[in-house]
Amino acid sequence: MAFLKFNKSELVNLEYSLRREILGSNCFGSYFNTSIIACNTRKYHGLLVTPLDNLGGDKYVLLSTMDESIVLGGKMFNLGIHCYGDIYEPKGHKYIIDFDADGVPVITYKVGPVTIAKSITMVQDKNQVLVHYKVISCPGRISLLLKPFLAFRGYHDLTQENAVADTSFQPVENGAAYRMYEGFPDLYIQTSLKSSYAHQPYWYKGITYSDEYRRGFDCREDLLVPGCFAVDLKEGSELVVSASTKPVQTKTLRALFAGICRKVTNVGSHKDILLNNAKALKVIPNGRKQIAAGYSWLNTGLLRESINALPGLTLYADGNKAEFEEILDNLIAAEEERLYRRTTQIEAPLALTDTIQQYIAFGADPKAVWKKYGKVLKNIIASYSCREEAHIADNGLLWCEKRGVALSWMNTYVNGWPVTERAGFQVETNALWYNALCFALEMEAKYGGKKSDFITEWAPVRDAVKENFRKVFLMTNRSGFHTLADYVDASGQHGECRPNMLWAVYVPYSPVDGEVQSDIIAAIDKELVTRRGIRTLSPRSIDYHGVYDGSQTERDLAYYNGCARTDLLGMWEDICFRMVGTSFCGRAKWLTEGFFEDVNLHGVGAFSELYDGDPPHEPHGAISAACSTAALMRCMYLMDKYSKEGSK
Fold this sequence. Notes:
Layout (H helix, E strand, L loop, with lengths): L4 E3 H4 L2 H4 L3 E5 L5 E5 L10 E6 L7 E14 L2 E4 L2 E4 L2 E5 L4 E5 L5 E6 L2 E9 L5 E10 L3 E14 L15 E3 L2 E4 L8 E5 L4 E13 L1 H5 L5 E15 L3 E7 L8 H11 L6 H11 L1 E2 L6 E2 L2 E2 L7 H11 L1 H4 L2 H14 L1 H5 L7 H14 L4 H18 L6 E3 L5 E3 L12 E2 L2 E2 L6 E2 H21 L5 H21 E3 L5 E3 L2 E3 L2 E3 L7 H5 L7 H14 L1 E2 L2 E3 L16 H8 L4 E2 L3 H12 L4 H13 L12 E2 L7 E2 L3 E2 H21 L2
Antiparallel strand pairs: 1-9, 2-3, 3-4, 4-5, 5-6, 5-13, 7-8, 9-10, 10-11, 11-12, 12-19, 13-18, 14-15, 15-16, 16-19, 17-18, 20-21, 22-37, 23-24, 25-26, 27-30, 28-29, 30-31, 32-33, 33-34, 35-36
C-alpha cells in the first residue's frame, strides 16, 4: 500500500506541491528539509543544516540546495526551481513525474527519453547528506551538471551578497571544499564517480521564500553558486553526491547509500510512520541524548516539550526504559535552573511528576524509581516556596504572576505582551501541584526514611490544596452543571472554556470528585474536541480564532485561542479509556486515524505542531512536532492495550 506518494498532476501544481515538505535528520541534530519538488519555501529549508558548537550550538544552513541540469543532444534541461518574487525560474518541476517517500524520498524526473531518479538521505551520526541519482532510462550518454547553492548562515537568518564572503575553493578527491566565513567548518562536496569542476563564483540574488513572505517575515536572500560539477552518465549509472563537514572516501559513497536504504523502515502501516518520526526526534548533540521539540525551527532539549513528549517517544514507541531514563537524566542535569529556581514554564517542573507516574504505570519498579528520582521531585516541590514567579498562598494553592509574562504553556505574545497572561491561580498548574504533592508524600511514606521532615512540612499544604481547590475553581451553572475556572485572579473567576481544566481530571490524584470530572469531560467533549486534537478555546468565545493564518499578530492571536492541539489528545484518550474502558476504542480510532489522513498535507510523513480549530482543520506550525508525535504514539498504545483487554 502506498502511503506517501504523489503523482505528476499534483507535483506540477505549485499551489499544491509547495505546501508539502520532506524532512530527513541524523541523530546529531542535522537535517535536510525542502518541499516535495525541491524548491525551498522557508529560510529554514536546506540540503544540509547542522548545529555548530563553536558558534553557540545553533543550527546553520551550509548548503541551501543543489540544482541539476541534464545535457542531452547538445541541449540543457534545468531540473531546479527557485522563486524570485512572484516568478519561478527555472521551472524544473515540470519534468517531475513521481514522488515516493514510503522509504528514502525519491523524486523522479523525465526529460524526453531520459528518466532519472533522485533520492536524498542523511547519514546517521554524521553531518552529511547524500543525494543519489540513478539513470533509469537513457538512449545514450548524458552529462549531469550540479550547481551547489551555498548559504553559510544561521537558520533564523538570511544572507546577502557581501565582500567578506570567501568565494574560493580547495580541490579534494572528486570534488571541492568551501568555507565562506571564518569560524565555519569546511563544506565538502564530493561525487562517487569521476567529475570535473569549473569554478565560476556567482551570486544568485533575490531568491524568495514564499512561506516566509506569506507569514509576513523577511523572505529574500542572495546565495552563492561557486561553480559547477559535471559527470557523464548512461542508462543504469548511479551517482552519489556527498555534502559533509568532513572529507570522505568517494569510493565508499555508493555502498554507504545502499546500506542506509537497507536500514530504512519502509512505511507499511500507520505505526511505522509514528516510529520513524519518534526516532528522528531523539537526537544526540554533544553526546547527550535529548528530544528535538520539532523541525525545522523548534529547539532541542526544551524543558516543557521534553517532559511531555518523553514517555510517548520512548515507552509507548518501543518500550525502551533505558532510553527513557537516559533522556530524563540528561534533561534533569541540563535544566536545574528551571526545575529548582526560576522559569516562565511554571507548570513544567510539576509535570515531571506525571512523566514519572507514567513510567511506573508502564512497569518500572516504584521503589527504584523513587530512590533515583524522589529527591528531584521533592526539590521541585520545595522550590515553589521561594520562586519569584510563583508563591504558595495561604490556601495552599500556587499563585503565579509576573507582569507582562505568560507564566503557562499558553505563552504567545503580540507586541511584547502575552495574549493569554492568566496571572493568578491557574487551574492546570494547581492540578499538577496537588498531584505532585500527593504522589511525593505517598512515595516518601512508602520508601523514605522512618521519620521524614518532608512529610511533616508538606502534608499540611496538600491538605490545604485538597480543601480549597474546589472552593477556588468550581463553577456551577443554574442547571447544576460543573466546570472549572480557567484561572482566578483578584477580579474573580475567569470561566473561558479551555482545555486547562482537563488536567484536573487527568492527574492520578485528582482534586475534584467523579461528578465534577464527568461534567468537565462532557464540556470539553462538546466544545473543544475535534478530529485533529483539542481546541485551545471554545468557538462560543468572543476571542475564538478558528484559523491559524494571516499576519504574525493574527496567527499569534489564534495560537492559543482556538487552534487544535494534538499534544492534548493523549491525555484526553487516557481519561476516556479509564472512564469507559474498551467501549471507547471505536471513537479513539476515529479521533486518531484523522491525522494519518493528513499525513501528506504539510510535512510528508510527519505530524504537525497544531491544526485549525475550524474544519477542515488544516495543519500548521512545525511540520514535525515531538509532542504531537508522542501523543499519537500514546493513543496507539492505549488502543492496542484496551483492544487486547476487550478480546480476552
